[in-house]
Recover the amino acids of this structure.
């Protein structure tokens, strides 16, 4: 009886983690929740400096706002990018006592009213628990990539596999019973660097050591992915890594012309097959390519909510298993009374106002649209489009449908008529609607549609982009 009770207690301890964790479906195409196998649409927000720059009250305000806006994954970094090792957090704490030994700076107790008890890692605990209360995952990066790869603020502290392993093992052990952790290695860095077309540095052993430590602490089934640098995909150097559960792309902030949907289709063709998504599309209110010193508001300007939708919708329709939204003043939690802003040009609104930016209140409509069609066995199928598909990011249409052809969705970046091959869907009467990605509202198209080619015109040219929905009546 005692053995049974002990076994039951053990199961109760590990069950929340097993139930809540996400995983890839059997086809390796999309994400599901482990407990019931239902599709999981990853709608993330990049709060990279969340642990480092916010107070407890600010954390609650941020998380509660994002919960109401429909986000379910918050990406943040245990050892943050902006001098996150040496510059104290809002409570005056740093993560390590000693950078040579990487001894954690922990203290007895965790009372936030007692500054000697409440340490850096207690604050990370608090954020993770507050997200869990709101049924939100934390996409936890053990460290930003500059702690491994030289060339930025750093400092580089993971100089060998042993140091990386020890740190990741301690971190993973701390959170192995926490159901809402998704592990993300990397951090805006490539795992392999080249010089003169030859490999100049290979950091994969460091990341492998971290992945091994996480799996040893949390089990082989723990979900791990990787956040690459701008313009890159994990498929280039990590395709054969056994620990990698999902491919990620960073389409980034250098251009409006990025066609990430093509990269997503390409990654889905690779073996072994993994789900894939754009983990960092263009951020709302981010200056377009500000790094060459030639940026001006009039010449390049900022990415706006339309730019965000136009990239994210097409990435998802091409086969992305989810997406990540970002705002340029949220990731760094801009507050000029505390920190100098990074690359914001002449627009500084602060992170509190940025929480209510246009796309932040619109992008949940995409998640709801996808979940309204629970069959996630989708493929990109642009043969549905009989009219001109467009030629570049400004006008290119992307169509998706499920495997059996019982529904289809077509994203239109311009409010222009589109002609559809209805015969390429399952036989039967088709219900056709227009979906507004700004409001989430649908407008049914009058008429009887069964087969052949039909042309549909968006209900308004005032709205830039539309989604055409076609459902085959059962």
């Amino acid at each position: 009886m005692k053995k049974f009770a002990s076994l039951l207690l053990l199961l109760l301890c590990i069950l929340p983690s097993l139930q809540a964790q996400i995983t890839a479906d059997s086809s390796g195409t999309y994400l599901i929740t482990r407990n019931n196998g239902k599709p999981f649409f990853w709608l993330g927000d990049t709060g990279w400096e969340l642990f480092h720059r916010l107070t407890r009250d600010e954390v609650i305000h941020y998380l509660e706002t994002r919960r109401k806006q429909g986000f379910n994954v918050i990406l943040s970094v245990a050892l943050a990018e902006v001098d996150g090792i040496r510059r104290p957090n809002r409570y005056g704490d740093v993560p390590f006592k000693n950078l040579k030994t990487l001894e954690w700076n922990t203290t007895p107790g965790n009372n936030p009213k007692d500054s000697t008890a409440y340490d850096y890692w207690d604050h990370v605990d608090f954020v993770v628990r507050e997200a869990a209360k709101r049924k939100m995952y934390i996409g936890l990066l053990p460290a930003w990539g500059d702690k491994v790869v030289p060339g930025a603020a750093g400092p580089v502290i993971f100089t060998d596999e042993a140091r990386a392993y020890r740190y990741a093992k301690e971190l993973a052990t701390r959170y192995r019973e926490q159901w809402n952790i998704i592990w993300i290695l990397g951090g805006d860095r490539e795992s392999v660097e080249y010089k003169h077309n030859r490999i100049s540095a290979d950091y994969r052993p460091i990341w492998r050591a971290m992945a091994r430590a996480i799996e040893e602490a949390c089990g082989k089934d723990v979900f791990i992915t990787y956040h690459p640098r701008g313009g890159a995909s994990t498929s280039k150097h990590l395709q054969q890594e056994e620990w990698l559960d999902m491919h990620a792309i960073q389409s980034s902030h250098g251009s409006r012309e990025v066609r990430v949907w093509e990269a997503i289709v390409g990654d889905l063709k690779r073996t072994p097959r993994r789900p894939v998504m754009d983990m960092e599309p263009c951020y709302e209110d981010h200056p377009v390519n500000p790094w060459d010193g030639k940026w001006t508001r009039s010449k390049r300007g900022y990415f706006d909510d339309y730019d965000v939708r136009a990239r994210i919708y097409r990435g998802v329709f091409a086969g992305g298993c989810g997406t990540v939204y970002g705002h340029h003043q949220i990731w760094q939690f801009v507050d000029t009374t505390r920190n100098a802003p990074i690359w914001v040009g002449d627009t500084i609104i602060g992170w509190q106002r940025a929480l209510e930016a246009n796309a932040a209140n619109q992008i949940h409509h995409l998640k709801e649209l996808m979940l309204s069609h629970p069959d996630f066995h989708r493929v990109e199928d642009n043969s549905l489009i009989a009219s001109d598909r467009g030629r570049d990011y400004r006008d290119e249409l992307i169509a998706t449908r499920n495997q059996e052809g019982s529904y289809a969705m077509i994203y239109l970046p311009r409010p222009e008529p589109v002609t559809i091959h209805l015969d390429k869907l399952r036989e039967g009467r088709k219900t056709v609607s227009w979906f507004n990605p700004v409001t989430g509202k649908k407008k049914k198209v009058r008429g009887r549609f069964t087969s052949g080619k039909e042309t549909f015109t968006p209900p308004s040219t005032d709205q830039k982009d539309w989604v055409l929905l076609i459902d085959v009546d059962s």
